[in-house]
Amino acid sequence: NAGVTQTPKFQVLKTGQSMTLQCAQDMNHNSMYWYRQDPGMGLRLIYYSASEGTTDKGEVPNGYNVSRLNKREFSLRLESAAPSQTSVYFCASHLSQGLAGGVKETQYFGPGTRLLVL
Amino acid sequence: QQPVQSPQAVILREGEDAVINCSSSKALYSVHWYRQKHGEAPVFLMILLKGGEQKGHEKISASFNEKKQQSSLYLTASQLSYSGTYFCGTVPGYQKVTFGTGTKLQVIP
Q1: Between A43 and which of A35, A58, A64, A67 could a Cys-Cys bridge form, CB atoms 3.0 to 4.6 Å apart?
Q2: Separation between Cα atoms, residue B84 and residue B73, nearest integer Å
Q3: Contact between A109 and B44 using a beta-carbon 8 Å cutoff
Q4: Where are the domains of chain B?
Q5: Regarding beta strands B103-108 and B9-13, do their DSSP bridges make them parallel or antiparallel, or are they unpaired?
Q6: What band does B99 get if pLDDT is binned at 50, 70 and 90?
Q7: B4-108 domain in CATH 2.60.40.10?
Q8: Percent of chain B predicted with pLDDT > 70
């Protein structure tokens, strides 16, 4: 059970280049998210997917596209990278469980992708 | 709009207690709490839903005041392993988490 995995771990791009960040989870979670974290800052939601086949914009979607390929995988694409997109990108998945005592919710993060755009 | 956390930073000696506050300008469905160590991914600590309080992790608990749109994280008898940056995440709508400004906690021997 690997949890949430992300590839690549590090990437350097030149302005205008494109790339896709990959994320996969093996926990059968319905919801998946992409966040970015700039140095010394909190996380900002780029896009999320509440279930397979659906995606929605978060706080900072401009310059990004996403694809929820299946329940396991949620990819983030930068079509034309800009220096302002230099950041650490985290993928996360969310579990909501109905239990006898109520609802239990947890969110798991991948290890992150460090992206530098020159 | 980003929730505001206070304090921004705190230094504790092992065994001391701390409270971290999170305040939102929007009505909330739930509040999440996370801890992030330097260079690592955030780790989910707990979630508080409207009308509930959840103890989730070690000697860490939290409360959620829906009317005031505030949540507080309580760390008791702090350990060195508690060091890191704590983020609250507020959820005004279904599953869209907005993260707070962060509180840097350092526990020293």
Answers
A1: A35
A2: 14
A3: yes
A4: 4-108
A5: parallel
A6: confident
A7: yes
A8: 88
Tokens of B67: 């009317």
The DSSP symbol for A26 reads S
Q: Are strands B84-91 and B30-36 parallel, antiparallel or unpaired?
A: antiparallel
Bridge partners, residue B107, by sequence: B12
Could you give the CA distance from residue B47 to residue B34 in angstroms, rounded to a whole number? Answer: 9
Nearest CA to CA, how far is B46 from chain A (Å)? 7
Task: Find the CB nearest A102 among B43, B52, B94.
Answer: B52
**B57-81 b/e with 16+ CB inside 10 Å = b?**
beebbbebebeebbbbbebeebeee
Q: Does A34 touch chain B (CB under 8 A)?
A: no
Residues of chain A predicted below pLDDT 70: 1, 97-104
Q: Does A94 touch chain B (CB under 8 A)?
A: yes
Which tokens hold the place of B94? 């279904």
Nearest-Cα residue of chain A relative to residue B51? A102
Higher pLDDT, A117 or B47: A117
Amino acid at A85: Q
Q: Given this model, what pLDDT does residue B55 score?
A: 55
